[in-house]
Write a structure and sequence with these properties.
Layout (H helix, E strand, L loop, with lengths): L3 H9 L5 H5 L12 H13 L5 H10 L1 H6 L8 H29 L7 E10 L7 E3 H19 L4 H12 L14 H26 L5 E3 L6 E4 L10 E12 L2 E8 L8 H12 L5 E4 L6 H10 L2 E4 L4 H4 L2 H4 L13
Parallel strand pairs: 1-7, 7-8
Antiparallel strand pairs: 1-5, 2-3, 4-5, 5-6
Helix pairs in contact: 3-6, 4-6, 7-9, 8-9
Length: 336
């Protein structure tokens, strides 16, 4: 009766799975395993340290606790598990997580007095050498625009495309080897290539957005960040995500993924996300020096939240040398 699988099943059974069921169509073939049961299998697998789809399939076939969790249904194969995890479940996982957080609050395990916030960088599975840098793209885009403007005087892709379509009507194109291209065809092909590069660079900047300076070609959501050195002291930039975690009473009560490398710009959107799902603000916010900024102080003051953020120069201010520097603002007294 006290087995972990029974406890996990009882807690997960109290959640509302209507949003998860809405991701399934009423037409077509019925799913091999009920979505509610599949979700419980994946969560319990994570609790047991099993993350691979194939390992989860194996556990469902041979482990008694997983068989009990399946409620007599056929063990799903690894393809079904992977499809559920990356497809159906992906749309409802956030709602189910915050439902569980609200359950903890109803049980008296958590409250909204203080939230402890910290972030961690998680490396993406993307290729490490498939990077796209904003400065490089902007540099090449400026060169392409300058070449087009010198040749035609156009400053937009729409004007250049319309001119190329009209210019192509007066050209006899040849493509076979041994046949000489006319000067008009050569110029048309050169400008067409410039137009293609122009649009490609603009698409890269659009994918990158305003808040970051890089992304990976094999995972466009990942940003290149400097991670902590591994055992081989490889401290190079790697594609990664900045994951922000909020903790209250030793429970994770909020989690959000950001593309920004700096923690300081993630505090405000993360607190707004917590307020959106919790429907109430935390009274106190506790964070390390990575979140200190004037904008964050002003925001917390406007929301009436008490902040405990470690100053970036906290260790320096404790030294005798720092205290003797009378020219520093921290050592001056306010004279009314």
């Amino acid at each position: 009766e006290n087995a972990p699988v029974r406890l996990a099943s009882a807690q997960l059974e109290e959640l509302d799975y209507r949003k998860l069921y809405r991701t399934y169509s009423s037409r077509g073939r019925k799913s091999a395993v009920e979505p509610r049961v599949m979700f419980k299998v994946i969560v319990y697998g994570y609790l047991c340290g099993i993350y691979s789809s194939r390992k989860l399939e194996e556990a469902c076939r041979y482990r008694v606790d997983f068989m009990w969790l399946l409620e007599g249904q056929k063990a799903p194969d690894h393809t079904t598990i992977a499809r559920f995890r990356t497809g159906r479940c992906r749309e409802a996982i956030e709602d189910l997580f915050y439902q569980f957080v609200r359950k903890l609050e109803e049980m008296g395990e958590t409250d909204h007095r203080a939230v402890f916030i910290d972030g961690t960088k998680m490396e993406s599975r993307a290729g490490r050498y498939t990077f796209v840098w904003r400065k490089s793209v902007e540099k090449h885009l400026a060169k392409v625009k300058a070449q087009v403007e010198r040749s035609t005087g156009f400053t937009s892709t729409q004007e250049l495309r319309a001119w190329l379509e009209e210019f192509a009507q007066n050209i006899t194109f040849v493509h076979r080897s041994g046949r000489r291209k006319s000067p008009g065809q050569k110029e048309w092909e050169r400008l067409s290539e410039l137009l293609e590069r122009w649009e490609q660079y603009e698409n890269m900047l659009s994918t990158m957005g305003e808040g970051r300076n890089s992304y990976s070609k094999t995972d466009e959501d990942a940003t290149f960040m400097r991670l902590k050195e591994d055992h081989m002291r490889n401290g190079q930039l790697k594609p990664a995500y900045n994951v922000q975690i909020g903790v209250n009473s030793e429970y994770i009560t909020g989690i959000e993924l950001f593309f920004d490398r700096n923690d300081v710009r993630t505090l405000q959107p993360f607190l707004k996300k917590l307020e959106q799902f919790h429907h109430v603000r935390y009274e106190e916010v506790v964070a390390d020096a990575g979140y200190e900024s004037l904008e964050n102080y002003l925001y917390l003051d406007s929301t009436g939240q008490i902040c405990y953020i470690k100053p970036t120069n906290y260790e320096q201010r404790r030294s005798k040398k720092f205290k003797k520097q009378v020219g520093r603002v921290e050592n001056m007294e306010y004279d009314q």
